[in-house]
Amino acid sequence: MRIGILIGISEYEHYNNLPGCDNDIKAISEVLNTSKEFDEIKIFEKNVESSKIKSELSKLFEDWKSQDVEELFFYFSGHGSFISNEFYYILSDFDENQKRQTSLQNSEIDSMIKSIKPKMVTKVIDACQSGVSYIKGNTNIVEKYYHKTADSFDKCYFLHSSMTSQYSYQNNELSDFTKSFLKAIDKSDKPSIRYKDIIDYISDEFEKSTEQTPFFITQADHTERFLATSPELQKVISKYVKESNKETDNSKDEEVVVYNSYIEKIKKDAEIYSNKDEVETLLNEVKDVIETTDLQTELKELYCYKNAFEHNLRYLPKGTLIARWLEDNPNEYFAKADYDKIPYQEEETRGNPFGQSLASMMRGNKIVTKYRSDLKGFEQQLDIPFKYATIDFVPLFPNLKQHALLLTFIISKKDIKFFYAFTEYNETDWTRKEIIKNFKWSSSDFLIKENKQIFEFIKKTMLETENKLLSIVKERFENRK
User: Fold this and answer.
1) Which residues contact 420 (CB under 8 A, 6 or more apart)?
2) Beta strand 336-348 with 366-379: parallel, antiparallel or unpaired?
3) Which of 73, 194, 305, 316 is the most buried (most CB within 10 A)?
4) In 3D, which of 123, 112, 28 has the Cα closest to residue 64?
């Protein structure tokens, strides 16, 4: 018996909607149904509320306990979040203050799956933060986490849409990762397609992408097949892939008109670029959003905001991690690593002692001054309103710790990449504090012209940070007598 659980969530109460997930779930469900290789397929789509899906999943798995399950195929398309060593599948009514009640935890799904003892488990996760965005050079705890969960199953294939980028991308028609998954089947010239064939196709297609890097964890012998290919299956897939590529007859005619030469393509592409004035306007508006945003939860009874906008990036904590990212990733940003030349003295050996005169040997070796490069952080030589912001959560009571949201960015002619991190202060006495530097940077990417999305990102990040601090405070004090 082969079982499929398909979850595609496009409507959210507190997050931005994901219209592409509608087609994601339709495409995958149509593929499985057309193949006729799955005995039972359960679909949850559009508006998926936590109480309903949890109740239905519990009943399904209870019914499946008496079945001989060859494979459990689990597919998810929607928002996801990795928090405190746990991955959360974000449901339509997700509430940060009740994150366990209003989401599906990966460990929760794994426990249900283990209860029916399938011979093989396949998970295809197309979600933001199915991996997580940490600066290169830090150990990726997400990948370790999924390797650990893989050990719970005899055979498994885990296909995740992103690791080194925080976001998994989509348009209104289809998610990029799901589209690649479908194309792998569509392009196959074999009688049947293995999971390893799909992994290889997706890996090759995303290899040159610096924005989204899928990752895969397998615990199998790579002979396991997904489906038999057929003209009927390819017809289903081509419908979705062609629609997402705008290759229908009507759009083909339109493309010929719009892109009838490389000059037209250049003109069209130039529309997404921004000038210096637009950048200055954007950053002034970002500054205004930060300054006018108030605390929105009961945390406002315990803390107040204090904002600082700085120009000298050498004072930015752990700016060296961003500098290393810039050096390791080819890019067009107006930013580069910032080095100091540090002098040091070294004794210079005077060659072969047997060729030296006695007088020369008596004088000894020469002391010379040399220089080494010391990485201090990164810099961007731009005249802009600010280069990083510190949003402090200042406690109103002495038994609370001060925390901070750090926000910086790098800019190109068309893109802005935000780096942000949450950390706390260490008190050295009653009046002096210093930022604790054990944090990791996360990142999000936008076109400079995407003003509305950028402002929503700033507000959302501030609110998520507020909720995170509120959870910390509650955990510390709620159970005290």
Assistant:
1) 405, 406, 407, 408, 441, 442, 443, 444, 461
2) antiparallel
3) 73
4) 112
Beta bridge partners, 367, equal 347
Q: In this structure, are residues 420 and 450 in contact, taking their beta carbons and an 8 Å threshold?
A: no
Q: Which of 464, 300, 298 is nearest to 396 (CA)?
A: 300
Is-contact 69 117, C-beta < 8 A?
Answer: yes
What are φ and ψ of residue 99, in 5° steps? -65, -35
Copy the structure tokens of residue 426.
């260490």
Nearest to 124 by CA among 167, 170, 175: 175
DSSP 442-471: EEEEEETT-HHHHHHHHHHHHHHHHHHHHH
The two tokens of residue 27 are 């495409």
Q: 129, 28, 46, 149: which is closest to 91 by C-alpha? A: 46
Token look-up 């952080």 returns 377
Q: Take residue 429 and report the two structure tokens written for it.
A: 């006495």
Q: Are 122 and 154 in contact (CB under 8 A)?
A: no
Q: Whole-angstrom distance between the N-terminal and C-terminal Cα of the chain?
A: 53
pLDDT at 364: 62
Per residue in 192-203, pLDDT tens? Answer: 999 999 999 999
Sheet containing 80-83: order of strands: 80-83, 86-90, 103-105
